[in-house]
Structures are given as structure tokens and as C-alpha cells.
Amino acid sequence: xxxxxxxxxxxxxxxxxxxxxxxxxxxxxxxxxxxxxxxxxxxxxxxxxxxxxxxxxxxxxxxxxxxxxxxxxxxxxxxxxxxxxxxxxxxxxxxxxxxxxxxxxxxxxxxxxxxxxxxxxxxxxxxxxxxxxxxxxxxxxxxxxxxxxxxxxxxxxxxxxxxxxxxxxxxxxxxxxxxxxxxxxxxxxxxxxxxxxxxxxxxxxxxxxxxxxxxxxxxxxxxxxxxxxxxxxxxxxxxxxxxxxxxxxxxxxxxxxxxxxxxxxxxxxxxxxxxxxxxxxxxxxxxxxxxxxxxxxxxxxxxxxxxxxxxxxxxxxxxxxxxxxxxxxxxxxxxxxxxxxxxxxxxxxxxxxxxxxxxxxxxxxxxxxxxxxxxxxxxxxxxxxxxxxxxxxxxxxxxxxxxxxxxxxxxxxxxxxxxxxxxxxxxxxxxxxxxxxxxxxxxxxxxxxxxxxxxxxxxxxxxxxxxxxxxxxxxxxxxxxxxxxxxxxxxxxxxxxxxxxxxxxxxxxxx
Length: 511
Description:
There is one protein chain. This protein is an all-beta fold. It contains one helix and 48 strands. The protein has a 24-stranded parallel β-sheet that branches. Strands 5-8-10-12-14-16-19-22-25-28-31-34-36 form a 13-stranded parallel β-sheet. A hairpin with a 2-residue loop joins strand 45 (about 475-480) and strand 46. It is elongated, with a radius of gyration of 32 Å.
């Protein structure tokens, strides 16, 4: 086994931090390519870049400190297969104005940053283009430089990035722009991380026709307490694509917005396959969740999620979940959108579905504990918009509309009125009557047809068969073939004509 190189054995390395050690430290790594270099307890001041092809190891983040002075350079670059940084703390006397602290680059194999701490850094960590399998774990990052379009962890490329047990926190109101920002990547795995007081906790924001983020997986991550932004922010722009995001046990609380999924609506931009499971969106200033992708969003699911007591300022002005105009292909299944965690009702509605939405589902959601109502739906409820089996929501309309009657064969004019009511379980109950003048009931080759609202083929639950016919002896017969009811009248097997009134009723389910 090859022993580590002790960095203090090189002339010019000062473990007290009084003198700058940049040149001597780089000389040590250059002279020992691929080797592990050990930094004993102490403070090592640098003012320029250090490139590591092997390992850099300390005695602990509170014992071994690299003091990064000034900006304009990347402090530590891991640029070879299997290079690593372990058990070291990084600090600066004041906020760094620019530069990455630890950068992954130029690797096709495993690189890692483990057991670390950082403070006052501009861009603490960046995973660059060309990396394959990088690990960032067991770290604490405090007081990242506020603003300036920077991120605590910046992912601009690479395959299979693992981020585990990283805590980032900043003073309230002095937040970096992003916690974890993903601009370009193929597979990021995040577990047990907490991004506190960041402008946006998690950003998935590829840009341009070649920008693509695919396969983002997260379990038990928290993105909370942003004074200026969003817990989870997904927004591809200018033709970029986001495909395959699954977040389980996500916590997005006390931000401006809990979660925002949107696009800029430019050509070829796409969000496809985003799933939140057992996640919580709580105590955010505005909405808990905003969906605003239009036709560029597909397969966006919220399963068994808790969207609770958002719209804290002002109370009653925002929904728990807002699907903006033209949203499509989204589902909210199970879970809650209302009051919770002792905060009381705050949402205007638990769910608002704006106009012209399609292919959506709200199913089995507890919508109690909202100020105005459980759900407001401004889009048509058809087989492409399903709202059913929810608690705390009853469809608020019962409509009496004249229904057009289409005549065939030798029929003469007739008039129909149908009363119908849609339930939250997806059933439509209807009843009505057709008034038929003399000679107008039908022939052996046709029937009066009554167009029904919301009908979908082969889903009648029940329909009256022996329909009352007044004004003339005999019975009327109805059979269902959505979206139409067909009415005829017979007397002992013989088709008869009017005058008369045919009453009918039934129930069908919207698919």
C-alpha cells in the first residue's frame, strides 16, 4: 500500500495560514500524480487554482481548513478518474465574489467530495461536462455569497451525480440564487438533503435546443424558507427539455411558492414525466403548486401529496394547487389540499383548474379546509377532464338546458328539455321529456335522437326502459348509445306517432 504524501513536507506549505501556500501545494500534486495528499490539521491559505489528479484528505472539516482568498478562480479541481476530496473544510474571510470551490471535471469514472464544510463561498460545488458517477455527500455549506446568479451545487453536465446528506443554510434575506441548480444532466440522485434560505431550493432549468435534463430522482429532500423564490422550480426554455423527474417525500415549505412547473412556451420546449409522491407543500406565501406548461407539459402527477395552508400572505388569495390556462395531461390523486399542521384554512380553493385545460384528473383528494371552496373548475368536464371521488367537494351546478333534437326519416319537429347534474364521482344523472306533435314520433327506420352532455360510449349505469307516454296509448322505448339517446314509441309492437309527451331518465358515467 502506497502511503499518502504529507503536504507539509513540501517547502513553502504553511499550515498556519499566515503565508500563501498555493504554489507549494500545486507543486506537491504535480510531483505526485494520482497520489493521495494528506493535509494535517491547520489552515492552508490559497489565492489561485489547485488541480488534483489523486486525492486530497484532511483530518476533519473543523481541523483541516483551506482558506480560499479572493475570487476569479476555481479553488480545487478534481480532473482525473477516481480523484477525490475528503474530510476538509473550506472558508473565506469574506464572501467570495466569483469562482468555484470544488469542481468535478474531465473524468469518465468515479469522483467524490465527502465529509466537508464550506462557508462564504461563491459557487461551492460544480459538476462539469464529461463527468460520470460523481458523489457529493455528508457536507455542510453555510453563508454562500448572496445573489449573483450562483448556486450552492451547480450541475452543468455529467451522468449519474449522487448528492446525499448535504445541508445548506444562509442568513434570511442574504440568499444565493439557487440551492441545487441542474442545467444539463443525465441522471441525478438526491437523498436526505436540506436547502434552506436559497433563492430557489431546487432548480431544473435547461436552456436552448441542446439543453436537456433527464432522470432526476429524489427521496426525502427539503427545500424551504426562501424569502424570494420557489422550493422546486422546473422551467426549460428556448427548446430545452426536462424528461423523467421523480421526487418522493419532498418537503417544500415557507417559500414564496412551493413548486412551480412551467415552460416559456417556445417551440419544442417540453416537460414530460414529472411525479411527486408523498410530498408536502406547506405554508408557502402564494400557491403550494403552480402548473403552467400549456401543451408543452405531459404526464405530470401528484400522488398522495399534502398541499396545506399555503397563501399565507394574503390569506384567502391563492389556491393550494393552480393549473393555469391550457394546462394538460396532469393528475392529482389522493392526498390533501386544504388546512393542516395547525395553521388553519388559508387557500381560496384547494384546487383551481383554469380555462381550456384538458386531459386532467382530480381523484380521491381531501379538499376540506379551504376558505372559498374545495375546487374551482373553469374547464369543461368531459371524458378528458375527470373529477371524482373527492372529499369536501360537490359539483356546484345543476343545469336545465334545452337539448337539441336531431330528426331522421320522416320525423317532424319536436322539442326536448333535459335536466342534468354532474356529481363529483363522475356520474351524470338526467331526466327530461320530449313533446311530439301528431305524426312526429317516428318510423320503423328511425328514432328521435337527443344529444346528451358529457356522454361517453358504453358507460351508462342505468337508463329507463318503459318510458311514460302521455296523450296516446302505448309505451315509449329508449336505448342508449352515447352521446345520444334514441326514443321510439310502440303500441303492442306497432310503431305509433304523436301527439304525446315522452319522459325519460337515467344515469351514465363519464370515463
